[in-house]
Design goal:
about 400 residues; Aspartate Aminotransferase, domain 1; 14 strands; about 15% strand; globular; binds pyridoxal-5'-phosphate
Length: about 400
């Protein structure tokens, strides 16, 4: 049997393309933030994680250009060896202060960050306890750990009773790490942190929260999930990304200095991979400057998402309620997801079509997300377009 047979037999993407409704890998030709050009046409972007709209901010762009002029285009090595520049250290220090933690360590992506932390901290015979809906990078980190004989247990999504049940089966003094998204990337719900912290404390577990969709979105001045609940000291480790609010590329973990130092000297995902580029670090630093100077952007983002939530609910859409930058609209089947995606796109609105098995059967959705820089006319156009298309497909 040919190893590649599965590739030659894979026809699903071609079938969707032949139907003219393939939503993925569409090339953006120009990007102003709320409006982008695709296939020579301007469309309103309602699917990006550019939460504060900073990818086109003049100061953020200028910082990237200046960093290239000073340091060149790449670092050509791992942080461990020749790949550290002073900007990496500056961003680590600035972010630690912003998040109220002793230390921060940068990684080259958020995805790598989870793979860097989880198998590094949890060893053979120790327990890893994970929400069933955690992001794919946590799942990948968990699988690496399980390959090294870590005990992996999962609990029902954001269900603290189920977590309590899982914890009750494990001896109290066995070391454990509980991992959860702070804001879940698909549904946009916020983790039940107060109860999670209480259960972690009662069961001698450390806590890792993935704040990819939380920093710049919730908490005081956008300081994330722990800040949202006044539990900064109770969350042991917070990880995140620079690919959303921070308008760049890269990941980070924040926590106690001794723990961060251990990860720094042990994580394969850090040691054996090149460091974030000068332009990436400089733009994340500039984005942090803007976030600190203009916290009202966070309020604007939340108000924009709420405008859409209220508008779509009023039109009769099945919207997952929430208070983050993510507004998912349930459509209920792959077919409808593809069809509706295409119709919205043709009408000038770009959203994300989430299909099974990425989401459970029946939960297929138009996953929409917002920016502080969307203006009311953009938001109204999104609602009007949803209404028109929703009626045409019989969803409302
Ligand atoms: C919850 C969550 N964690 C981590 C990541 C990965 O971040 P990055 O894009 O930096 O790899 C994402 C990105 O989609 C995410 O949604």
């Amino acid at each position: 049997m040919d190893l590649f047979k599965k590739c030659y037999d894979f026809t699903r993407a071609d079938e969707i393309k032949a139907m003219g409704v393939y939503p993925y890998f569409r090339a953006v030709e120009e990007n102003e933030g709320p409006v982008v050009s695709i296939e020579g046409r301007k469309v309103i972007m309602a699917g990006s994680n550019n939460y504060l709209g900073l990818t086109s901010h003049p100061k953020v762009k200028e910082a990237a250009i200046n960093a290239i002029k000073k340091y060149g285009t790449g670092c050509s090595g791992s942080r461990y060896l020749t790949g550290t520049i002073d900007l990496h250290i500056e961003l680590e220090n600035r972010l630690a202060k912003f998040l109220g933690k002793e230390a921060v360590l940068l990684f080259s992506t958020g995805y790598q960050t989870a793979q860097g932390i989880i198998p590094t901290l949890v060893h053979r015979g120790e327990y890893l306890i994970s929400d069933k809906d955690n992001h794919a990078c946590i799942v990948a980190g968990n699988l690496i750990a399980r390959g090294a004989s870590v005990e992996l247990l999962r609990y029902k999504h954001n269900n603290m009773d189920d977590l309590e049940r899982v914890l009750s089966k494990i001896e109290k003094d066995v070391p454990k790490l509980i991992v959860s998204d702070g804001v879940f990337s698909t549904g946009g719900e916020i983790v039940e942190l107060p109860r999670l912290v209480q259960l972690a404390k009662a069961n001698n577990a450390k806590l890792l929260i993935d704040d990819a969709h939380s920093v710049g979105v919730i908490g005081k001045g956008g300081r994330g999930t722990a800040s949202e609940f006044n539990l900064v000291d109770e969350v042991d480790l917070t990880m995140g990304t620079f690919s959303k609010t921070f308008a760049s590329l890269g990941g980070f973990v924040a926590g106690e200095a001794k723990v961060i130092d251990y990860i720094k000297h042990s994580a394969a995902a850090l040691i054996f991979s090149a460091s974030p580029t000068p332009a990436s670090v400089a733009s994340a630093l500039a984005a942090l400057d803007v976030l600190e100077a203009e916290p009202e952007r966070v309020d604007k983002l939340i108000a924009n998402a709420q405008f859409i939530r209220t508008g779509l609910l009023a039109e009769g859409f099945n919207v997952i309620d929430g208070r983050t930058g993510i507004v998912p609209v349930i459509v209920g089947s792959d077919e409808l997801a593809f069809q509706m995606w295409r119709m919205l796109y043709d009408e000038g609105v770009f959203v994300n079509a989430f299909i099974a098995p990425g989401v459970p059967q029946g939960r297929q959705m138009m996953r929409t997300s917002y920016m502080a820089t969307h203006e009311e006319h953009h938001l109204q156009q999104i609602i009007d377009t949803f209404k028109k298309v929703g009626k045409q497909v019989g969803l409302i």
